[in-house]
Inverse folding.
């Protein structure tokens, strides 16, 4: 059975990528894993310090969990198996690692995410993922 990994971040582009992946999964009999990756940002100051696991738990139980549930319902198609996961780390690198270690056949992402300023400074996740992924990447516009 084919397996598709879909990186999401709450942007309209990521939603379009999830929709496209769901349509492809239905057409090919593939399963989907929707993934939200929390970038590893340092805490703002000593008084606000949280470990990466505490940050992950906080995000998983709030925004990421709600987003993943919403997209799971949105991407439901007859016969398509969908699961969700969240992680923490550099987004493109973490998606590439998940795709390789999980044996996914395709990685699907939107062409740009929520952070336009960050993209200009650091480069987009999609651009980076295309360069480093050992698995095929579909970038959806």
């Amino acid at each position: 059975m084919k397996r598709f990994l879909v990186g999401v971040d709450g942007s309209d582009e990521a939603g379009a990528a999830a929709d496209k992946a769901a349509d492809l999964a239905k057409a090919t009999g593939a399963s989907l894993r929707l993934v939200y990756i929390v970038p590893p940002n340092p805490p703002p100051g000593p008084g606000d310090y949280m470990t990466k696991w505490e940050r992950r738990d906080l995000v998983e139980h709030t925004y990421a969990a709600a987003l993943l549930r919403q997209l799971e319902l949105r991407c439901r198609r007859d016969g398509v198996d969908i699961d969700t996961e969240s992680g923490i780390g550099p987004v493109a690198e973490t998606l590439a690692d998940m795709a390789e270690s999980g044996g996914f056949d395709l990685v699907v992402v939107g062409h740009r995410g929520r952070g336009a300023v960050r993209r200009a400074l650091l480069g987009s996740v999609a651009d980076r993922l295309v360069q480093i992924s050992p698995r095929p990447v579909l970038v959806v516009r």
Remarks:
- Confidence is low (pLDDT under 50) at residues 118-122.
- The domain at 3-140 is CATH 3.40.50.620 (Rossmann fold).
- Strands lie at 3-8, 31-38, 82-88, 106-110, 137-140.
